[in-house]
Design brief:
Layout: H1 2-51, H2 54-66, H3 76-83, H4 88-92
Helix pairs in contact: 1-2, 1-3
Length: 96
């Protein structure tokens, strides 16, 4: 009976290690997703501010308000897709 308990403990330990490694990998991937989305938003905010265009500011405000944020249930891939909507100011290049 001692051997069966040892096998069960080793299996439980391996499952826990696998779960922990999987959670760590998922956390890293999720953090990269949010970091990428925030970099894109920051770049758009900079371009919008430099444009001094009321219309561009309104479009950026609407974009930020429309982001699919749901607290801890937020799906980062949906946020990433929303942020990747083409930015008309990016195509125009730097503003004087």
């Amino acid at each position: 009976m001692g051997r069966g308990l040892l096998v069960t403990a080793v299996c439980a330990l391996l499952i826990a290690i696998g779960y922990g490694l999987g959670a760590l990998a998922e956390s890293f991937s999720l953090n990269e997703c949010y970091a990428s989305s925030l970099r894109t938003l920051a770049a758009r905010a900079d371009r919008t501010a430099m444009s001094k265009s009321d219309a561009a500011i309104a479009r950026f405000r609407d974009l930020v308000q429309s982001l699919p944020l749901a607290g801890p249930r937020t799906n980062c891939k949906r946020v990433e897709l929303a942020v990747e909507i083409p930015d008309p100011l990016a195509a125009a290049g730097p503003q004087p």
